[in-house]
Structures are given as C-alpha cells and as structure tokens.
Fold this sequence. Notes:
The chain is mainly alpha-helical. The protein has a single domain (24-146), classed as Orthogonal Bundle (Arc Repressor Mutant, subunit A), CATH 1.10.10. It has helices at residues 23-39, 46-60, 67-71, 87-91, 127-146; strands at 109-114, 117-125.
Amino acid sequence: MARGKPLERTAPVVRKSALANDVTALAQIVRVFEQLAKAMPTRVSIRQAYAFLHIAERTAGGHDIIVSDLKALGDDAWGAPLFDASIGRSYQLFMDEPSRDYPEPLGWLRLETDPADKRRKLLRMTAAGEAMAKKLVKIRDESQHTS
C-alpha cells in the first residue's frame, strides 16, 4: 500500500443492476444448477446434464426417445452440434450398466428394445433417474416460492 492518507471507510454503494428484474428467474436457475452440481460427479458436463434432463422431460411427456434424437437438438452458439460423434459420452454416464468409459455409472437411465422395431433402443428412466428428476422439479418449485 502506498504511503499517504489512510483509506476512508464508507458504506457500500448499492447500484441497480441491469439484471435486477431477472433476480427471481436467475435464483431458480441457480438452485437447479446447484442441485445438479451437488448430485452429479464432477466429470458431468453441462451438455450431459442437458441430455439427462431432456430425456426426463420427453419420457415424462410419454414420448419415446432414442440416442439419435439427441443429435436433432441442434447446434450451440458457435455452430457446433450439441451432441455429435461423442454422443455416447453424453448419456452413458447415466446408464444402469457399466461401460468401458463409465465403470460406475449413475444408474439413472436404461436401454430397452422398442417392441415395434427390435433394431431401435429406447432410453428409459430408472427409478433412481425418476427420483433425481423429481428432486430437481421440487427444487425448482421451492425456488419459485422463496425467490
């Protein structure tokens, strides 16, 4: 610290943020991300979490989803596919069966053969996956009432 007059202590200045009108929405998003961060291993990417939540949302609505459906989710802001050739890594962590890349998966998803087309493998939620999805919905609901 340079020599001279001592610093004067003043009350903090409160400035209105450009995001002031978005505090509630941001708080809700933060709570969900917080629980995702606490519930998932550190190696889970935002895209993997998105894949899990997309699968949960689609199956909750009674829709079938297959792995290649994740490719149809489009591109990121830089034009790269959200899920490309590495699509397997986007969901395998959540499977109920170990794989070479994930010897200790979370057990939130399983693959089932489509009864209408034996070649198709449907992604399904396990009881553990449904419990995690319900936990996240509950956190979101609570954040709407507290923010």
